[in-house]
Amino acid sequence: MDWLRDFWEEHRTLCIIIIGIIAGAVFIGANLFKQTAGSKETQLVSATSSSLNSKKVSYKNDKEQQNNSAASKKLFYVDIKGAVKKPGVYRVKTGMRVDDAVKAAGGFEELADQNQVNLALKLNDQQIIYIPYRGEFSNKLTTTVEASENSSVQVQAKGEDTGPSQDSNSQIDLNAAKKEDLLKIPGIGEKKAEQILAYRTEHGNFKQLDELKSISGIGEKSFEKLKAYLKVES
């Protein structure tokens, strides 16, 4: 250790200068490192912030597109026909059923055959909903028709009948009919059958079918639906 002491005594000034230079270099290096690290951290924070903002904008745009798409899917159109008070095309919402479409069309007509209608069926865009009259199809046609995949709508018939038979042999003669005969006709109940018989008793035999419209409760619409089942002979 004596040689170190001797060296220090002989070169004290030089040693102090060297130590000072080393200390200064360390100090300067440390400052440069801090500045470089700070700059990189700032750049990283800036890049991260920019990326987050970009993702937020992208997410917002995607969300708006999804909301717009969902809104456009909420409303669509169906066509309801047949024995309803106001047939036509109606705008409905996703989740609605045939019952809602019937209500939108003013409800069933008096002679609607509700037994053939599935009121719980969900509605689809471009769907045709047909409400049959009593006895009209004899359950041979579907009462609702779905839109096909290519957006064209076709009736899916199970039979060829489109209404009551016009064969005169199957029609009931108003002038020979008994109450039980009249009750077989869709749309004629106890009261209406009795009114028809009472009219015939009071006025004599029917000369033409149009006379039915003179009976209370049988208007133009009811007559149009009944005349296919009736005839006047004797």
UniProtKB/TrEMBL annotation:
Bilayer-spanning residue ranges: 12-33
Keywords: Membrane, Transmembrane, Transmembrane helix
InterPro entries registered for this protein in UniProt: Competence_ComEA_HhH, Endo/Exo/Phosphatase_dom_1, Hlx-hairpin-Hlx_DNA-bd_motif, RuvA_2-like, Soluble_ligand-bd
Presence of the UniProt keyword Calcium in the record: no
Domain Helix-hairpin-helix DNA-binding motif class, chain residue ranges per copy: 180-199, 210-229
Single GO BP term: protein secretion by the type II secretion system
Gene3D superfamilies to which the protein is assigned, alphabetical: Outer membrane lipoprotein wza domain like, Tex RuvX-like domain-like
The keyword tRNA processing is assigned to this record: no
One GO molecular-function entry: DNA binding
Cellular-component GO terms for this entry: type II protein secretion system complex
Highest taxon, organism lineage: Bacteria
Name recorded for this polypeptide: ComE operon protein 1
